Every structure is written in C-alpha cells, then in structure tokens.
Amino acid sequence: MASNEVTDRSAKPDAEASRREWLSVAACAVVAGLALPAVPGQVLPADAASTRPDGENLTPLPDLPEPVAGEDPILRMLKDLRRALKKPVEERRWVMAVDLRKCTGCFGCTIACVTENKLPPGIAYRVVLTETHGTYPNVSRHFTPTACMQCDRPPCTSVCPVGATWKRPDGIVVIDYDRCIGCRYCIAACPYNARYFDSGHFYGDYEGGQLQPYETVAAHEYRVDRVRSRRASPVGNARKCHFCLHRVEQGELPACTVSCMGRATFFGDANDPKSLVAELISGPNVMRLKPELGLEPRFYYLM
Amino acid sequence: MSEKTLSRRDFVKLAGATAGGAATLGSTGAFRALSAGEAARLSQQSTQIKYTADVMCPAECGVMVKVENGVASAIYGNPHVPYNAGTLCAKGAAGLQLVYNANRIKYPMIRVGARGEGKFKRVTWDEAIAFIADKLTAIKKTYGPEAVIMDAGDVTDRDTYWRLFFAFGTPNCTEHGAICDTPRRHGPRLMFGGKRVEPDVMRPVLLRQADGTLKNDYSYRTKLIVYAGWNPFTATRINYESRGTVGAKVAGARIIVIDPALSNTATKADRWIPIRPGTDPDLFAAILRYVLEHDNPKDPSRSYIDWTFRDKSVGWDEFRAAFQSWWAKKDPANNLQYFTLEWASERTGIPADTIAELAHSFGITKPAAFVWGMHGTGHHYNGYIASILGTTLNVITGNFDAPGGVIDTELTKSDKGGSATGKSFLARPVKRVVGGKEVQGKQDELHMDSYGDWPAAWDDVVGDYPRRMLKGVTLKQGPFRGRTYPIKAYILRTGNSVITGSATWRWQEALTARDGKGNYNVDLVVYVDTPFLESGLYADVVLPEASYLERVSLSDVYPSHPVIWLRDFVIDKQFESKTPFEIMNALARALHARGDTDIQPADFWEKYRDEADFWTEALAGAPGKPNVGSPLPYPRYPEGYKIIGTPDSLEAGRVTIDDEKKEIRGERVTVKWLREHHGVAVWPMSYFRYPGGILKTSSKKIEFKWDWTEATDKDAKRYGQYAKYNKLVEESGSVPPGIAALGWTRYPSTFYWFETWWNPYSNPAYAKYKKEYPFQLTSGRIHHAMSGTQMVDWLGRMPAEDTWLPINDAVTYQEVVVGADGPTPTGRTLRLPANTWAIAVIQMAASDARTLGLKTGDLVELANPLGQTARGKVNAVETIRPGVLRVAFGGGGRFSPGLGRNFYFKDVTPNHNDLVDPDDLSPIMGQPAYADMLVKVRKV
C-alpha cells in the first residue's frame, strides 16, 4: 500500500510560513520508485523553445460592445499580447503585475493555474501568501500572489548541471522536462520558493485510488502535449510557472490573469509602451519582492 | 538562446481559452452570432470550448469549459457575460473535482438499512422510479397530494421538479431561499416589491449612448460603499462585487465594512468596524435617527436627505412618526433613549463617535451604497428591521437606483421560468373535507406555510419542516382552515437540510420518527443530487442527478440589468445520472401510468421534446422588464412598455408593438439563440427605473407603509405588502404564532421594532445567560468548502479566512467511497499527515484564548443553554471581536462519507447547526436565526 500512503516530510505548523504547506500535502515527499528521470523516446522536444504562432490559428477575441469610460482589461491585454506576438521573440519582454489593492484573496488564480497545467498534489505555481499584522482592533491582512518571478538574473538556471533550465529571449525561464534529471539544485537556489519537485502523485490517489478523468488529459506546458504518468516527465522533474507560455504563444493570456476575481492581475509585453502592463509598471506605486537580491524579477506589485 | 522551430506533434489544438465570436473589433458585437467558420471550429476539433453556467455556488457565473476528447479539462470565465466578465473564483475553477468526484452518486439506490445508517443497494432507474411512484400514489390517495414536500434545495434549476409536483397537486414546493437569508430581503420586498439591494458596481454595464449606440460603460461612480454583515469577497455570491468593490476603491471610493470579524472584504476596507453580533438593526436605527436629526438642506455639509424621494413614495409621514415614537422611550436593557448614539454604542459595542461619523459619511457622500448582508441581518430573529432601515437609508439619501448607488437586482434581472415552472397548476380548484363539510378552494390554498402558521413567508419555511413532519400541518387561514394533514413524503433535490436547514438533531429526529406501528412518520424520503451529502443517509431512494456540466437550464442571478445565460450540455452524463428534465418525465410517466389524472402527457413528455424545448418556454418572457429609466434603454420604442425578445431583434427593430398589453415584442429568446451567441443575452442598463417602472408594489411607488386603505367613489381599495396577509388573519381570526409571540395581532402597517433572541446585550430576557455563556456564536461563510462542495480536494487544501484552516491532526483511516451500493470501504488505508488539510475551526479572539488558557489547535467543546454541544479546534487570532466565536456554516461535523476527507474529521470539527435553536425562527418569515446563540467553552 506504499503508493497510497500520504506522507509529508515538509509539513510545517505555521500556516503563514510559506507556500508549501497549503497545497502541499504531501506530495512533496519522494516515494521511492516514482521519482524517475524522463523516459527517452516519448514526447521529446529538443528543448522548450517557442514556435511563432502563424497568426491564423488565434482564437477570436472576445466579442464585446464598444467601450466607454474605460475598457475591458482582458480585451486590452489580449490585443497587447497579439501585437507582441508579431514581433520577433527577442523583442518581447513578458512581465506580470499584480495590483495588491485589488487582490480579494479568493485564490481563484491558484486553482485556475492548477487546472490549466494539470498540476499534481503538492505543486501550485501560483500561490497567494496571506499575512496578518497587528492586534485587535488594529489588524490588517494582506494577500500577496506569487509565482516564478522570471528573474532577469535567475539564480536557478546556472546551477542546473545538465542545462535543462534557461532564460528565453522573451524573459521566461523554462525547464526542459526531458533534460531535467530531478536533482533539485534549482529548487534550492530559488529565493522565491517558486520551484517544485513533481513526486508523481495524483489527486486520484487521495480519493478512491483511481485517476480522475481530467488527470488523464494532456497538459500543454511549453506547447508539448504530455499526459502525466508515474513513469514519465514531468514526474521526477522540477516544475514552475512559465507565465502559461503555451497559452501566450497561442495568443491567450495566462490562466491566472483571465480568472482573477479582483481584476488585479496583468500580463503583457513591457517593451511595448502602448501595452497596459507597461503603463501600470511605470507608476510610482510599484515594487518587487526581495529587490535587494538584485535578481531583477519580472513580477511587479502595484501598491 | 534563439528561437527554435521544432517539429513536434501537431498542435492543432484550441489551446486558448477565449474562443469567442467572429465579429471584428469595435462592432456592437454582443449581438453578433458565431460565424459559420467559428461554429464549425468549435464543433469539429477534439478540443472544444463550451459555454455554460456554473453551479458550484448560486452565483452561477458564465463559464467556458475546455473539453478535450470528451473530458472537461479546465474551466474559465466567459468574458461575454458581464456579470463575471471572464473572472472565476477558486470554487468555480475547481468544478472539475465535483463533476469527476469519486464520491458522486453513480446509480439509483434504495435503502436497505435503517434511516441514517447509510446502507443501500443499487437498483435500476425503473425500480427506483416505480418505488417512488407507488409511494406517492398511495400517499396522494390516503392523505392528499399536499402531504408531499418537494424541496428543490440549495442550488438552482428547480423548475422541472416544481412543475411535476405542482401538477401532482401539492403546493408545497420550495427551494433554499427559505433557509438562506429571508429577513435580509424583507425591507426591499416590503418597500419595492424586490428582494436584493446591491451596490452599482457591476462593470461593464451596457448603456444607451447619446448617439443611439449601445456601449459597455466601465466607469465607477460610487464614492462610498458600506457593507454591513456582508462579505462579498468570500461569499462571491454576487460575483461582480469582488472586482467592483476594489475597482471602485481604486477609482476613489471609500469602503467601510461592519463585521464582527475581519473578513476578506474588511481587509480591503478603509475602515473595519467590528460590531457586536445581532445588533445591526440598532446601528442602522441610530444612523437613521442621526440623519433625520442632523439633516439640514440649507447647510451643504449637513444636507443628507434628498427630499425628492417623497414624490416617489408613499407613507413617509407614518413611517417617520412610528420611528420617532421610540425616541423618547427608554430601553429597559440600558436605560438609554432608543436610537440615540449612546444607546446604539451600548448595544453594538461601537463608540458613539464612530457611529456619528458613519452616519455623517453616508449621509453626505453621494453617490453611496448602503448594503447589508446575509449573516449580519438574515440570520437574526429581528433581521427584518435592519433590512427595512437599510432600505430606508438608501431611499431617503437619494441612492436608490441612482448611478453609483444601490440597485434592487431582483427587480432588474431578466424574467425567466414563466409557465414552465408550473405555477398555473396552483390555481386548480380542489375539494377537501374540513370538519365534516366539503370545501372548495384552490390548490395553492392548501400551502402549509401560506395558509398555516406562516402566511407572510414569501419563501417558505424549510426551517420549520421538521415540526410539521413530526406533528403535521394544520391550516389556519383561507378556505381550508381547520384542515389537518400529515407530511408523508419529502423529496429533496440538491439540498442538504439535515446540515443546513436549522438544527441538525431536529431534522434527524423528524426523518427517523416512527409511528406506533414502527413505520417512519415521513413515509417516503427521496434524495436527488450529484454529491452524496448527509441528507442522503436518511433517504429511502437516492437518485443520481446529472451534474451542472451535464444538463441544460438557465442562470438565476442578480446583475444590475437584464442578463441571462444558458447552462448547457458540456460533457456526457456520468455513470447512470439523469438530468432534471429526464427525471421529471420519468416520474410523470410513472405516475400517469398509475392512474394519476393530474399528470397529463400534454403537460410533460408530449409538450417538451427535449431540454431545449423546456428551457425555451422558460425564456418566453425574457427579459420582461419595462422600457424605463435614464438613459432610456430603447428610445425608439414607447416608454414604459414591457420589453420582450432577443437583444438583436430589439436593436434591429424586428418587433411588434402591442399598445393594448403595452409590450414591445421582438423575436423570442430561445435556447438555440443563446447557443449561437456565446450562451448569453444582454439587454441595456438604465438608472432611475422607478416610480412605476420596475417597482412591484401595489401603489407602484416606494412604500413606507404596508397596509392601508384608500376610498374611491365606488369602493375602498387596500394597499401595501402586508394587506393580503392581514385580510387572511382578519377573516380567520387566527393570529400566526410567530407574530403572536411578539404580542402583535396583525402585521404592522409601518415601522416596527422588536429585539432579537439570545442576545443579552439588547434583549433583557437573555441577560441571565451572559455570565455562564459568555460568547456569542456567529457563523461565517467559507465559500470554498460549504455544504455541497467539501469533497473537492483543491478547495480542501486552501484556508478560508480564519474558519477553515489546515491544522488537522495526523489521521490514519480506512477509506470509504460512495459506490454502487452507497458508502463502501475501498480496502485502502490512508494516512493524512498533520497540518496538511483544511478543516473547520472555531475562530476566537486571541485575548479570549489567553484568558481561557487556550491556544490555536486546542480542542474545545462549545455548549449552549439548550444543552447542545459541538466540538472543534480553536483558532486564536486578532481578527475577531472579543466575546464572539465564529464557526463556518456547514463547515464541520460532517458525517456523510460522501464528503471525502472531511468525513474523517467529523468528531473534531464543529457543526454550527448542532448549536442553533430550532425554535428561534424569525417571526414573520420563519428563517432560522442561525446567528443568535450563546455558548460557553470548555477544553477537552
């Protein structure tokens, strides 16, 4: 029954401490035999690079009435995004911005990401930290959505012994699951706790023992269709947020961005001065996490 | 690294989420159909996007589901539905784990053990339907059809079931509204004929422009929102209040949240005012008194009241006089004059100057919205008063239906249902023998609430069903008064009344009570649902209903203007589940075959070929709202006429104008039309849609009085929302017990006041409990994991405010899953480590915990003065008012194995409704006063 055992070596009692315990159950633990390297011969991209969309396969934009006194942020960002896709990849600078004044703490982004990327128990690329300060009645609570910061000077890529993770010209830090050997150096190197190890658990393990149907559907990360199984990548690999690169290159916004209940999440090409996100991150109310590390994260917060 | 083009797989997938219509940008695209190419694209690919309506909660957001090779693989918001505008909360996104849950009811089952034991056997649909039809037929013959309750439960899509049971002959069809928050709706209902006052923050809204075009307006106009006992960020019931509140705030609005706990909404407020539970009417009354006393039209800094409201209303003088009649009186609870700042401060625990500032801010800031909520007002015995005062405050300050003010969304949403719901059957003449004499009346006049103990309960009294199950119904009003009948069948569909419908133990008692011969009092209990919740354990027959991704119906929500969207087939029905439409027809056929002449083929299977037929009939009157307000929705058509038909036909002028009926009739909205338009129909917004217009009061004005008579030359006509009930009471001479307990002999004709129960700070009758039971127990909504969705793993892993927290102990358990024969051990042993799974906990002020020597994680027992107890772990935090405990409604003590992992924590998580007083039913509408209770805490 070993494979059914739910174990957790990382559980911490302090609920505010970090991301791992929220969605962590368990599955951060390594179960012998499951943490296998990739199996050669399966879906094998040479690496996780991009293919330019041809522009004809883009889904139509939402069909909304003309705006007045503002605009639909999703439609604006989609137009920004599609404009960026017409440029060479080197000229795109993908960034994300979260307006902390508008995050309602619903955790919708977390689940939207989990479903989009078919993430297993123990892995959530997009985690919302909750902090509470003060004593009654002078209390405040803050929600801080986090994900891979896509640092311009990423500390995680250089430690990879097999060159399985690198920064793309458009700024997204990617992982080639077929090269990754699961050594977890990159997980240790990330100061934002943004990288996870896929230990091979399934949600079905926890309820009835059968895979749930959506767990049998391919995830499309890095535009590679992979049906996750216990014996193949990405099980046994490091995993992290990639700004939904597979969606972005098909002209769609990241899943967290579209779902956001407070319309607090923004995404786009910071190199395009006309883009919404470029406009937002040029304001005086912008900060980034751990700026003192000098890693130049591409994940901005509006205060 | 440079870009590389790789030859990989064929990526001809509709990877994107926002598959939309094919119109070019800048068109008035909301009315444009999918192009042929787009439709083909959607239908041919192995990956499809399907538009539908959520049912993870009653927000019913417009969603797009990605379906890959027949499997629903991700859920996104539908950007074409302005209600949620593409957004989706955690619960909405997590729907896959409900639809594909291991604990779904898979097959029809019949009980083989005792009720509550959870022993079932799988049967065929034919066997299950025959079992139900035989019982119903026998019950109808012996006791009459009114002995059957059809409770369409916690989510929407009630219409098919209601139609069937109205046709069968019972008037006793209900849904969850009755145990939701009826006192909260009372003020708008009395004064507008509406129900639900919400701030004008739904953006975009579709507005007619000066140049005649329709455009989506994104501007926030509100300058102040007061949320009292309302937590929209966590409830997400009114989806747009999440993005709308923070959007308005960033645009400059001030947000004030009044709540005993620091709710998620309070985290974004400019000011959090922690109020003592159950004192909202006290606060609202003090605000109104302050506004009335300090209003000065000549002083711009004191000009609170927009006196033009008097032209649009009736009864203000009477209302004001009744309100002011309390001002000089002294409250026995504190020896202070009613409604003064000091009086309210004493009761609410809020400093007097804070109340004055709040009253001044609301009075002077325009536009502003004063919004009260479910837990704060709906769950207290006297919640009506808060609701009436809140409605009044919005009206007199000029904020009702004003841009940036409040909107009664019950009055502005699209009509739906129509004759499909079967309400016309209620007018059928029926005969019954009463006191030896045959009496004729209408089917409706057999209603156990409306003609029994609760004539003014517009939404039925589910919380009082157990009493009627145990003691029977006695009709006290109307033609059949004096008639008694028992409750012999309880058909529960997607509800879980054992956990949510007042005290759990009272429901258990009612459903398991036996007569002298050992038979159950309630002869037939049927449970129809997708998940297997506690009430299912008490059922004789369990039917698997198709999940919301497997059926057709319509949204039923509260947008600021008419918007309606389709729930549609997304995936194949799982296991042997059937849709509500199929269940209606199957049961109708079986009853008809047993000789029930009330059930006619022409009303059911011959009338509706398929689900689309049924729901198209329900759309017949949509949107059904008058062409009124500013800007006028359709300036080309007569003002005041009712608008019916598709947005595109109305826009294109393909209409008939009926001057006699005063209707503008375009092409009818159909299921087909919705399918061709991203699943949604959107009609224009306008403001100031009254008087006349949208109001549903008897005078067509805002009514501050609720029973009055006006004489004309010919006769006298009676007006007001209570008039009808007072007429019944006058005829019968029988005062309903709810109001008799208040010392009333009739429903009041204007402002009234009475105290809530179990509150020692405002009701002297309970002062004696203050010392021994020092804590007020209130409930909080944990949207993630309420009654019907706790089996969803993703939601179970996430904390919610301070009442749902991963502080479980490690457990090792033998897994049980709902199988073909009900709950069945799988043979697997599972271990869940400590601190990995969110469970319902008791939120307690850290200072209180210190006093009691408790810390977070300690197991305690809560006991109330009725001798009832519940256990749970303490969460000692700074985020709640001392003296108050908050427990998640429906969160703990969950004893159905269908709940997944939460089942294994049932003994260490509190069920709020183990502690509710089942006799504390609010006096006019019978809503259980869930949040009126006192407890003491003991460490165990």
Short description:
Chain A is built from 7 helices and 11 strands. Chain A is of the alpha+beta class and 303 residues long. Mean pLDDT of chain B is 93; it is low at 1-32.
Structural features, described:
Chain A has a single domain (70-302), classed as 2-Layer Sandwich (Alpha-Beta Plaits). Helix content of chain A is 15%, strand content 16%. Mean pLDDT of chain A is 84; it is low at 1-54. Chain A has helices at residues 73-85, 108-117, 185-189, 203-206, 245-248, 255-259, 276-280, and strands at residues 67-68, 94-99, 127-135, 138-146, 165-167, 173-175, 196-197, 238-239, 265-269, 286-287, 299-302. In chain A, strand 3 (127-135) and strand 4 (138-146) form a beta hairpin. Chain A has a four-stranded mixed sheet with strand order 9-2-11-10. Chain A has a two-stranded antiparallel ribbon with strand order 3-4. Chain A has seven helices and eleven strands. By secondary structure, chain A is of the alpha+beta class. Chain B folds into six domains: 1-93, no CATH class; 109-180 and 417-546, Rossmann fold, CATH 3.40.50; 201-404, Dimethylsulfoxide Reductase, domain 2; 625-667, no CATH class; 706-740, no CATH class; 768-939, Beta Barrel (Barwin-like endoglucanases), CATH 2.40.40.20. Chain B is 24% helix and 20% strand. Chain B has 28 helices and 43 strands. A seven-stranded mixed sheet of chain B has the order 5-4-23-22-21-6-7, covered by helices on one side. Chain B has a six-stranded mixed beta barrel with strand order 34-42-39-41-40-43. Chain B has a four-stranded parallel sheet with strand order 13-12-11-15. In chain B, strand 40 (859-863) and strand 41 form a beta hairpin. Chain B is globular and about 75 Å long. Chains A and B meet through strand 1, helix 1, helix 2, strand 3 and strand 4 of A and strand 3, helix 2, strand 10, helix 8 and helix 9 of B.
